[in-house]
């Protein structure tokens, strides 16, 4: 294997940038290529078969960019497409659900864990199953927050509307006595200060995407495919199926590197 090849990240939009942000910090020797399917975002309300098709299209696009490992930086796609994409690709494929699960089981002291995500992720019960498989005594409270992704994708995540929507959406979790809350959608870390503020400082928030980067690091070692060549460090390429202007605005607000994305049409 050529260790200098980039690591690929896919998401329905800008959400996976929260994973890339962590990857830039934890894997500074690596090169990255990112594809956000912004034109077809959100994936959350879509039927599972369609999410599998879209995920496959994104994965195939990044395979043409000669990636050495793929991160499905989207919980909705991980929930329904991880196994299929793993079978189809000749490279390691990592999803975001198990790493978030492990971190939550480690963090909880009361065994009461909340999970917020898209309708697709919550409906799939993927977190419930993964947590129950590790810790059958744990109680899990799942909640879909369909209004969060549109707020992030429209670059409104610093606004007062965002604060109101976060408070209204998370209300059902109040009184559930959880001590740990999994941000089970990679868009949600952009709303993290508002979520933490509403839930209170005693609740541990788990960023499933950020946890995933630790696993990527382990896999690079396990398969011996890390990039040891400092001359090739830190290149990042970003692709979006939607507006490059909006993508770049959010990416440049969020990431410590300058982002100038390229438009791609996955239909072609
Ligand atoms: N960022 C995605 C996730 O982690 C999906 C958001 C969406 O497209 O609905 O689930």
From TrEMBL:
The keyword Isomerase applies. Its EC number is 5.1.1.3. The active site is at 74 (proton donor/acceptor), 185 (proton donor/acceptor). Keywords: Cell shape, Cell wall biogenesis/degradation, Isomerase, Peptidoglycan synthesis. InterPro entries: Asp/Glu/hydantoin_racemase (IPR015942), Asp/Glu_race (IPR001920), Asp/Glu_racemase_AS_1 (IPR018187), Asp/Glu_racemase_AS_2 (IPR033134), Glu_race (IPR004391). It catalyses: L-glutamate = D-glutamate. Substrate binds at residues 11-12, 43-44, 75-76, 186-187. Pathway: Cell wall biogenesis; peptidoglycan biosynthesis. The keyword Isomerase applies. SUPFAM superfamilies: Aspartate/glutamate racemase. It comes from the Bacteria. HAMAP family: Glu_racemase. Provides the (R)-glutamate required for cell wall biosynthesis. Belongs to the aspartate/glutamate racemases family. This is Glutamate racemase. It comes from Enterococcus diestrammenae.
């Amino acid at each position: 294997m050529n260790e200098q090849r980039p690591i690929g990240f896919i998401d329905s939009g800008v959400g996976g940038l929260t994973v890339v942000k962590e990857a830039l910090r934890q894997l500074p020797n690596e090169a990255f290529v990112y594809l956000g399917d912004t034109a077809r975002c959100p994936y959350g309300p879509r039927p599972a078969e369609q999410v599998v098709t879209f995920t496959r299209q994104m994965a195939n696009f990044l395979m043409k960019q000669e990636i050495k490992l793929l991160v499905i930086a989207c919980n909705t796609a991980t929930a329904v497409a991880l196994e299929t994409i793993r079978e189809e690709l000749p490279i390691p494929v990592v999803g975001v659900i198990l790493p978030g699960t492990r971190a939550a089981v480690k963090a909880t002291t009361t065994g009461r864990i909340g999970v917020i995500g898209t309708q697709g992720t919550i409906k799939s019960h993927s977190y419930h199953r993964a947590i129950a498989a590790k810790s059958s005594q744990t109680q899990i409270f799942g909640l879909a927050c369909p209004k969060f992704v549109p707020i992030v994708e429209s670059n409104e995540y610093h606004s007062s509307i965002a604060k109101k929507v976060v408070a209204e959406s998370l209300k059902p979790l109040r009184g559930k006595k959880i001590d740990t809350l999994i941000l089970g959608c990679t868009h949600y870390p952009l709303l993290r200060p508002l979520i933490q503020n509403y839930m209170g400082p005693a609740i541990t928030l788990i960023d499933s995407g950020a946890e995933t980067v630790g696993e990527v690091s382990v896999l690079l070692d396990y398969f011996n495919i890390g990039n040891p060549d400092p001359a090739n460090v830190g290149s990042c390429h970003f692709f979006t199926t939607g507006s490059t202007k909006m993508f770049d605005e959010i990416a440049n607000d969020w990431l410590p590197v300058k982002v100038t994305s390229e438009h791609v049409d996955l239909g072609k």
